[in-house]
Amino acid sequence: MSDNSNITNVNAVIEDGKVLDTTTKKTNTTNSGYDKDAFMNILVAQMKYQDPLQPTSNTEYISQYATFTQVEQLQNMADAMTLSRASDLVGKTVIINQTSEATGTTTQIQGKVDYVTYSAGEAYLNIDGTNYKMDNLYAVADDDYITAQETAEKFEEAIDNLPSTIEQVSLDNAETINSLGIAYDGFSDKVKSFIDTDHVTALKQYILRISDLQKAADSGTSTDSTSTSSTTTATT
Fold first, then answer.
1. What's the number of CA atoms in the CB half-sphere (13 Å) around residue 54?
2. pLDDT mean values, one per 10 residues, the chain (236 residues)
């Protein structure tokens, strides 16, 4: 019987040409399961350290090699499925979780996948010229989601372009403000969920100010220093 205490750098202990069950409590330091390389190392170690008086039969080697081949085929199949799944994302908007090695903080990157590359067994999604690991994929955005988000951003930008204070609003802004009010009322709940509440509050103040100005113009009075709105600064 061979001296197993001198065996190093193998993934399992071989005794009498057999792979021993070496399951221990090292679950915190080793990966669960074996990949094809580890399996090949075990097979080579078994051949190297077998008992010369009771060598493993050729039939058993063939059986183990067949098992190794199956493991390799399954891994290749998994790699192909990963590449296929990644390829299906081309042209779609995705959200990637990117963790900084320096700070350990995670940020989300959103963008459209331009193309997919495959290197060293991993699929990479290229967004705006930068490759991101497929494993870091957080979400795939629906087209309706993206449209709603873009609509909300444009709406908020339009409000930000209005006068910064209520007193600066004049009837010259009436058409724009009333149009924004009509647009907001027609938005779906999904679009409204993306709009910041401060922008909605500001819009209501603008609409109220235009209403006051129009009433004052009809009655011939001035609203330069008074307004039915208690807030004089838009909170955009």
1. 7
2. 42 47 43 59 71 63 65 64 72 86 86 84 86 85 85 94 91 93 94 94 94 87 49 49
Q: Which secondary structure element, helix H or strand E, spans residue 143, and what is its range? A: helix 143-160
Going along 59-194, which residue ranges are E strands? 93-99, 106-112, 115-119, 122-127, 130-133, 137-140
Residue type, 167: E
Residue 81 and residue 83: Cα distance in Å, rounded?
5
Q: How far is CA 2 from CA 15, 75, 91, 148, in A?
A: 7, 34, 60, 71
Are 184 and 155 in contact by the 8 Å Cβ rule? The answer is: yes
The size of the chain, in residues, is: 236
152: CB partners within 8 A, 6+ apart? 191, 192, 194, 195
Cβ-proximal residues to 109 (8 Å cutoff; 6+ apart), any chain: 95, 96, 98, 127, 132
CA distances from residue 187 to 9, 16, 141 in whole angstroms, order as listed: 65, 76, 20
Tokens 């008074």 belong to 226
2-7 CB contacts, 8 Å cutoff, 24+ apart: 2/49, 2/51, 4/49, 7/45, 7/49
Q: Tokens for 192, please give them.
A: 């409204």
Q: Which helix (H) or strand (E) holds 196?
A: none
CA distances from 128 to 108, 131, 149 (A): 15, 9, 19
